[in-house]
């Protein structure tokens, strides 16, 4: 099992319930493909470095999880088509 981190930038113009549903859906994808979520870190609303889809702000979430090597590709495949996710990045964390 490897350690991964999924970073999500979620649309800031949606309601709190919708934003929570987006994060829950991403967590559901991780567990569906055999991952175990270890931590969810919410950074809150931050100003974006550049405008994305005519938006200047987004909510940042970091989901850390343990999974096999094929899980991140499947999670990315599903997160890529989610409506309210502006940007995402899934990276493997070093053991050190």
Report on the architecture of this protein:
This protein is α+β, with helices and mostly antiparallel strands and 96 residues long. The protein has one domain (2-86): Alpha-Beta Plaits (2-Layer Sandwich), CATH 3.30.70.60. It is built from two helices and four strands, in the order E-H-E-E-H-E. A four-stranded antiparallel sheet has the order 2-3-1-4, covered by helices on one side. It starts with a strand and ends with a strand.
Give the strand order, joined by hyphens, for the main sheet.
2-3-1-4
Number of domains: 1
What is the CATH superfamily classification? Ribosomal protein S6/Translation elongation factor EF1B
| DSSP summary: helix tally | 2
Based on the structure, what is the oligomeric state of the protein chains? single chain
What is the H/E string? EHEEHE
Distance between the termini: 15 Å
Pick out the low-confidence regions: none
Based on DSSP secondary structure assignment, what is the total number of beta strands? 4
How confident overall, as mean pLDDT? 93
Q: Briefly note the structural class of the backbone.
A: alpha+beta
- Please give the largest β-sheet: 4 strands, antiparallel
Please compute the radius of gyration using only Cα atoms: 13 Å
Q: Determine and state the CATH class.
A: Alpha Beta
List the helices and strands and how they pair.
Blueprint: E1 2-11, H1 16-32, E2 36-52, E3 55-67, H2 71-79, E4 85-92
